[in-house]
UniProtKB/TrEMBL annotation:
Protein name: phospholipase D
Start and end residues of each PLD phosphodiesterase domain: 185-212
Organism superkingdom: Bacteria
Record's keyword annotation contains DNA damage: no
EC annotation from Swiss-Prot or TrEMBL: 3.1.4.4
Catalytic class of the enzyme: hydrolase
Family: Belongs to the phospholipase D family.
């Protein structure tokens, strides 16, 4: 493989690891001889050091200026890939203003998953449409992981059954929480999102309850494509690897 081919291959691998913004920001450092371990530390990805080293070595053969320009162009091109973002709402409808419902967006996201599904919520109650959609996804072979708050972490803010009980019937789903002993004082697991196949991301103010999905006034964003869903998937998996999210 030529140095140019190596640069292309390893630069693409690095792009997938750190994303276009970080790659563009550190393109000069990668190609000017800065130690790969230092660049990796700046990026917050120590595991990327071997790939950075391979890119830097190829850059020396291709010419640092040319390699830097290539990295910046690769990052810019990736950042411009098609991405669709729309708002989603729960609550009162307003005549003449079409909006997408939180529940419909969530159910479509779950229904469209083919490989991997992540959910995260603070509070949860059994909500039949969501549970049925998740069950169908699991029957298709989709891996399902759910991060959720626990009563010990919520304090007096949540009462009754453990929020995880809402998903008790989903045999095979992996339930995670943020261990209370590992948190800062009074910190909560408050992230509310759904993520399918690292390509479609719903971030919402709504808890996964009937009130949150059908009655409250809630707002969120549905992101299809681009780097945000992939970065979210990487972050969730890193939280599991690092022990910040542990199985219930």
């Amino acid at each position: 493989m030529s140095a140019q081919d190596t640069l292309r291959a390893k630069a693409t691998e690095l792009l997938e690891l750190v994303g276009p913004v970080a790659l563009a920001d550190q393109a000069g450092a990668i190609t000017d001889g800065t130690p790969p371990s230092i660049v990796a530390e700046r990026l917050g990805r120590p595991d990327a050091a071997p790939v950075i080293a391979a890119v830097a070595e190829a850059a020396r053969s291709c010419g640092p200026d040319r390699a830097e320009a290539y990295l910046e162009g690769l990052a810019d091109g990736h950042a411009l890939r098609p991405q669709d973002i729309e708002t989603v709402w729960t609550g009162p409808a307003v005549h003449g203003v079409p909006v997408r419902s939180t529940q419909l967006a969530l159910l479509n996201l779950v229904g469209g998953s083919t490989r991997e599904l992540w959910l995260s919520t603070y509070s949860a109650k059994p909500h039949a449409p969501l549970l049925e959609a998740i069950e169908r996804a699991m029957q298709r072979g989709v891996s399902v992981a759910i991060a959720i708050e626990i009563l010990a972490g919520a304090g007096s803010a949540i009462s009754g059954s453990e929020p995880a009980a809402a998903f008790a019937l989903l045999k095979g789903a992996k339930l995670y929480t943020w261990p209370v002993a590992s948190r800062p004082s009074d910190a909560k697991l408050h992230a509310k999102l759904a993520l399918a196949d690292a390509t479609t991301l719903l971030v919402t103010s709504a808890n996964f309850t009937t009130s949150g999905l059908e009655r409250n006034l809630e707002a969120g964003l549905l992101v299809k494509g681009g780097s945000a869903p992939k970065r979210a998937a990487e972050h969730l998996k890193a939280l599991v690897r690092s022990g910040h999210l542990t199985r219930i």
